[in-house]
Amino acid sequence: MGRDCDKFSRNQRIVGITKVLTETPNKVVNLNTFTEMFNAAKSTVSEDVVIVRETLEKLSVGKVETVSGAAGGIKFTVDISEEEKEKFEKKLCEIASEEDRVMVGDFLYVTDLIFNPNIIVPAAKILSSIFKDLDVDYVVTIETKGIPLAYEVAKNLGVQLVTVRNRNKVTEGASVYVNYISGTNKRIQTMSLSRKAMKKNSKCVFIDDFMRGGGTAKGIKELLSEFDSELLACGVLVDNNSEGQEKLMDNYISIIEFNGINQEGRAMVNPSDKRTL
Amino acid sequence: MGRDCDKFSRNQRIVGITKVLTETPNKVVNLNTFTEMFNAAKSTVSEDVVIVRETLEKLSVGKVETVSGAAGGIKFTVDISEEEKEKFEKKLCEIASEEDRVMVGDFLYVTDLIFNPNIIVPAAKILSSIFKDLDVDYVVTIETKGIPLAYEVAKNLGVQLVTVRNRNKVTEGASVYVNYISGTNKRIQTMSLSRKAMKKNSKCVFIDDFMRGGGTAKGIKELLSEFDSELLACGVLVDNNSEGQEKLMDNYISIIEFNGINQEGRAMVNPSDKRTL
């Protein structure tokens, strides 16, 4: 990246540092990366970093922390302001309660939303800002619809995404299988994960699009225990309370709540109460 | 975002502009967004933007274009330098040819890679920088393993991701079904897409993790024609040439090539020849 270019001005170095840091959240970046990139002294780069840190915090878009030690440097952690968060939750509720989103069987159609980067990026920021101090080794999801949100959270936390399958895959090698009861169709299903997918003794968060009764999350917890690994918490986009049932899982956060269908045939959706662990 | 804060310095405005622009690729951002955010004059913000543009181009990490007209403003488009691209491709080939990646049946295990943000982010930059001038309406993928790469490309191109399913889903409403022959197990499979998933007369690119014979891409093309929509091109992470067969699809690009297993039982992998459309 530009090592053979001329000298860079402070303004230019600041642009580059902002780009690199915000693009690799939760990863420690050594200051040498920047001294080499800009052919500048460490003291100069340190001053640049102070400006970047102060501005990102002033704008409430993230923090820049100093990590000391031999492998030290600086790292960016994702944040979202309360104002942005509320604005996004309100907008998401409006979209989710649009006409034509209620399908046969009173299912809420959100497939477009969970594959829309404009929705997934802010939703992942909300979840990541809550999970960022948990010292997570993996973000776990189950195919298919939770993948974009889980991927974005994994990126924000600087860790690998692990995707549990619900069919046997010939290309995955020796795998562990667990049965679970899914909320959507209330029948026993099987989830599987390759032995190669995860190191033992790992700490995980589970991310999904919907949570109804928490049966899937409970299955994930059991599956992870087969890897001597722990499920610390869950995060979902939509908390489905339309049947008012008890959750099998209490350590979770959600962004919006779906409370059933009103008399005009629209979904009743509001920002979730489950905002902290 | 910080509208009620004090004044911002040039350095601080530049940090904020870089963050906003690089986070929303291919989206037109009106200059008023920044004049409001920083409580600054349009002429001041215009000068800031020049600095951000020049630096991002100097570092070969993206371009900032001016869009004129009533809905005008500036937009950031993703780029990657030749140096970064080559470094990434080389590293990816090394990883893919590690021991223990060859599974029973001579399948190459890449599940960890296609769910790893450190791999997916640069891979998506390579594909996006080639597709960015195609004026794409949707990025299309098929569940499951292509989703993170396709999502990241969709984000870079500023469009919605559409994920084709290979099972019937009760929550998707009226859907279109197409049969296709998948390369992995050479049997007839069914792919489906909800009528709600895509507007008619759309232009699409198809993104997947692997391409063997191109049977899946051909199925996608047929499926899209049911939506009066067009498949402009395909992009894959791994071009599987291990069986040396003809592709059913020629308008595609790939990042690395898998050419079978060598005598030591390792995958033979090299940067792809299919680098341009």
From TrEMBL, chains A, B:
GO terms for biological process: negative regulation of DNA-templated transcription; negative regulation of purine nucleobase metabolic process. GO terms for molecular function: DNA binding. Keywords: DNA-binding, Transcription, Transcription regulation. Coiled coil: none annotated. It comes from the Bacteria. Residues 116-258 form the Phosphoribosyltransferase domain. InterPro entries: PRTase-like, PRTase_dom, Pur/Pyrimidine_PRTase, PuR_N, PurR_Bsub, WH-like_DNA-bd_sf, WH_DNA-bd_sf. Residues 10-77 form the Bacterial purine repressor N-terminal domain. It holds the Pfam family PuR_N. Homodimer. Belongs to the purine/pyrimidine phosphoribosyltransferase family. PurR subfamily. This is Pur operon repressor.
